[in-house]
Structures are given as structure tokens and as C-alpha cells.
TrEMBL record:
<feature type="domain" description="Copine C-terminal">
    <location>
        <begin position="57"/>
        <end position="271"/>
    </location>
</feature>
<dbReference type="GO" id="GO:0005886">
    <property type="term" value="C:plasma membrane"/>
</dbReference>
<dbReference type="GO" id="GO:0005544">
    <property type="term" value="F:calcium-dependent phospholipid binding"/>
</dbReference>
<dbReference type="InterPro" id="IPR036465">
    <property type="entry name" value="vWFA_dom_sf"/>
</dbReference>
<dbReference type="Pfam" id="PF07002">
    <property type="entry name" value="Copine"/>
</dbReference>
<protein>
    <recommendedName>
        <fullName>Copine C-terminal domain-containing protein</fullName>
    </recommendedName>
</protein>
<dbReference type="InterPro" id="IPR045052">
    <property type="entry name" value="Copine"/>
</dbReference>
<dbReference type="GO" id="GO:0071277">
    <property type="term" value="P:cellular response to calcium ion"/>
</dbReference>
<dbReference type="InterPro" id="IPR010734">
    <property type="entry name" value="Copine_C"/>
</dbReference>
Length: 273
């Protein structure tokens, strides 16, 4: 085995068949030939963020080069996730926008392609994000359900193909969501899959709805049809807390290890030693 040290306790998530990572205090234990996860990223471009051409918008691109709230979150969080990605390519989507000459979309490829959703590295995400702001019109409502369902489909296809992959969907949002019950339904449905959802809240909005999705109080989410989530798969972090001194690594990996281990233990997945 190969030992990779880090300042904080970390569990990375892998996509190589038969490989599982274990956490041991401040060390990350990686089975040989492990291939770290390729995270899934999604960011809200919804109208609730304000006109991106005005300085008071969370999406405002400052000519001086000072990053806006979304750009800061992309860099801070992306640099953590990048450590566990083998090819440094990220499937990346946007939601809550109207592409040129098209209807409002709640899950579109952020790079503008109709055929593929991946971008290369953090710089690729930043370029796709900036380009999208120039080529789409922000629009409501803000729906999480379609993005979560897209990530869940990828995870379910992996399981169906016999893969032992675990996926993380990162959602960056201003906290406004208009399909709360549909989002709950999608999360409950996805709770049986190898998937965790990290939600970053940017700006100063009321994040009560995001906190509802993060079942930290011990009560699992229940769908509209009475099904209870098999496990907690959501971690919500207000980005302002990260900026006020809380380590990004600490914040984002506070729950991921338990979520990951709960899944592999429920499936009796054994590591390659």
C-alpha cells in the first residue's frame, strides 16, 4: 500500500474497480493502482443571483480581476477535489439559465457543447463558467432535481456495469431553490447509489432550505411518497464560514468519510490489499 499524508483527515473516493480508500487519523491510505474519483460539478446561474453585468450580482465579473463568489468557491473547492481526480477532467453543468435561442434549462453542459460535459482542470471550469455568463440569460425557477438526477443516472449506470465507483456531485448555489420537495425526492432516490452531494452556499442568503437537505440533525430525508433515505448523502457548507477561517478540507470532508464508508459497508465491498 501507498501512504499519502495530509494535514487533515481525508477520505478520497475512487473509481477503479475493487479499490477502496480508508481513513486513518491524519493519513490517507491508498490501495495500489487506485484511481481517484472524477467529481461532478454544477453551479447555479439562476436569475436569483442578479444581473451578472452589475457589481451587486454574485456572478459579476470584475474587470480588475477580483474573483466573484462563484469563482472563489470554484477555486477553493476545486483545488481540494482536484487532488483526487486522475485525469483532471470534470463533468460540469449549469442550471437556471436560458441558452441562446433555447428554452430555460435546469441542467446544461457549462462548456456550451451539446455532446460532452467535461472540462480540463480548474482553469477549464473557470473558462466555461465565464463563457456561459456571456452566452446564456439567467432565468428562474432554480431547480436542483434535474442536476441531481443526472448525477444519479451516471452513478446507477456505473453500478449496472459492475463498476465500483463512488461519485461526488458538487453544487454551488446562492441558496434559492424552488423545487425543494422534488429535490428531496431525487436525493432519497439517490441514497442507495454510490453518490455524495456537496452543496456550497455562496452569498449572504438564508440557507435554511439547504440545511434541511443536509440531515445533520439525525433525521433522514423522506420523499413525497413516504420513502426514507437509506443514508445521509448531503453535506452543506456556507462558503462564508470557509472564508472566516474554517479549512476547506475540514469543511468538505467532515461528513464524506462516513457517507462513503456507510455505502461500502452496506454493499460489503472489500478493499484490495
Amino acid at each position: 500500500m501507498v501512504e499519502v499524508q495530509h494535514k487533515f483527515t481525508i477520505t478520497a473516493l475512487v473509481e477503479e474497480p475493487g479499490c477502496v480508500l480508508f481513513t486513518l487519523r491524519n493519513h490517507l491510505w491508498v490501495p495500489q493502482n487506485a484511481n481517484p474519483l472524477r467529481p461532478l460539478l454544477s453551479g447555479s446561474t439562476a436569475a436569483s443571483n442578479g444581473n451578472p453585468r452589475l457589481p451587486d450580482s454574485l456572478h459579476y465579473i470584475d474587470p480588475s480581476g477580483r474573483p466573484n463568489a462563484y469563482q472563489r468557491a470554484i477555486v477553493e473547492v476545486g483545488e481540494v477535489l482536484l487532488l483526487y481526480d486522475s485525469d483532471k477532467r470534470f463533468p460540469t453543468w449549469g442550471f437556471g439559465a436560458r441558452p441562446i435561442d433555447g428554452p430555460v434549462s435546469h441542467c446544461f453542459n457549462l462548456n456550451g457543447s451539446s455532446h460532452y460535459c467535461e472540462v480540463e482542470g480548474i482553469q477549464g471550469i473557470m473558462m466555461a463558467y465565464t463563457s456561459a455568463l456571456l452566452n446564456v440569460s439567467l432565468a428562474g425557477p432554480t431547480l436542483f432535481g434535474p442536476v441531481i438526477s443526472t448525477a444519479a443516472l451516471i452513478a446507477s449506470q456505473s453500478v449496472a456495469n459492475g463498476g465500483r465507483k463512488y461519485f461526488v456531485l458538487l453544487i454551488i448555489t446562492d441558496g434559492v431553490v424552488t423545487d425543494l420537495q422534488e429535490t428531496k425526492d431525487a436525493i432519497v432516490k439517490a441514497s442507495d447509489l454510490p453518490l455524495s452531494i456537496l452543496i456550497v452556499g455562496v452569498g449572504g442568503a438564508d440557507f435554511k432550505e439547504m440545511e434541511v437537505l443536509d440531515a445533520d440533525k439525525g433525521e433522514r430525508l423522506e420523499s413525497s411518497y413516504g420513502r426514507v433515505a437509506s443514508r445521509d448523502i448531503v453535506q452543506f457548507i456556507p462558503f462564508r464560514e470557509v472564508q472566516s477561517g474554517l479549512s476547506v478540507v475540514q469543511a468538505f470532508l467532515a461528513e464524506l468519510p462516513a457517507q462513503f464508508l456507510t455505502y461500502v459497508r452496506s454493499r460489503n465491498i472489500q478493499p484490495n490489499l
